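Researcher: Next entry in the queue.
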Amino acid sequence: MSIPDSDQPSLNRRSFLKTGSTLAAATVVASPSVQASTRTPSSLTEFTRPEQPTEWRNQQPGMHYRKLGATGMMVSEMVMGGIPINQENRNMVKVAMELGVNYIDTATGYGRGESETALGLLFKENPGMRDQLFLASKLSQFGGYRRSLYQDLFKTLPSEKQEAIEKRARAIVQERGVGQPGVFYRYFPNQDRELDWEYRIIAMQESYGHRIDGNGRFRKRMMDILDESLSRTGVDYYDVLFCPHGASSSNQLDEPEMLDTLAEIKKSGRARSIAVSTHTAYHQVMRKATDLPVYDVIMATYNVINQGAAEEAITYAYEQGVGLIAMKAAAAVRTHFDAFKPLPAWREQKLQTAVPGDFSVPVKAYIWVLQNPNVAAVISNMWNEDMIRENTTAVGKQVELQRV
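Model: Structure for this entry, 404 residues:
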């Protein structure tokens, strides 16, 4: 199965706002047979999304801050991605903090734990630094573990059953509009493979899900990943804990054993807020996450090329008190993956037209996102000090977006 290429220009923000309800109906609502499951874990009633007191950390002049939904956390408009952070360059975090960045986003899968290890060393070398930051991490390996269980099961099925699953998966992709123009964009290698497998899993769940879900394996795996993560960073808790990391469908959000485990983690104090991140099917994932009181924060793909599909879900989440962090803002117009080069010229042309001023292309991409008051922050993987200093110039800019 392969997701079709949908690299076509999407609606501009003004056009979207005029037709938002129509687009939402077309892209968010799936047929009853493919809606995300409505299974209710015992812990779901324990989750609430109350408004928390406003909390400041590392407030510096020149930086601008916004509230991360009902969490009360006042986060810098530019937050720092942990992919580039390693033991050799870990002091880049200090540079970002000097400029007012107060939220660091890492994950158990970044550098196979190297990013978390580097942060742990940094906190050990600089007592008190951890308390100046809002720290987020992700249970990266959980999604891969879940997928591997279904993959192993799929391999044992007769060929005719495999073919039926493939056929059903393709139908679900079509029914949900996951690969339609303006919705699906490729940002990293194997993104297609992850998405393909997620819809195979959805097609398998009705007949085979009982063999995988709810037998204690999910809880053990999640707890093991979290224990290892906290050990690497040397901290007692995360301000934001993501699970799933990179959800490709709304079905991934309400697996009862996963939610029960997240409730246990939050109750224990090892995570103050629960979050989900999503690169694909993001509009559907955001809607589902908002409707589940489990999720306090969403980090989702949002940029000048996918705005038409994302805007309505972002507004809805904001209105319900969910904190929004936009990712892949600059990845829409710049990529370091040779396989994706050259990016379609219309992307940069659209951005250049939309954002006036003498700014670099990546900075314009961040400025564009930050014009949306419903977004708390935009994340950037900043690979060196020059990048940190350049990208943080996007904060606080008020521009009149031009019609595209």
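Model: The radius of gyration is 20 Å.
Researcher: Noted, moving on.
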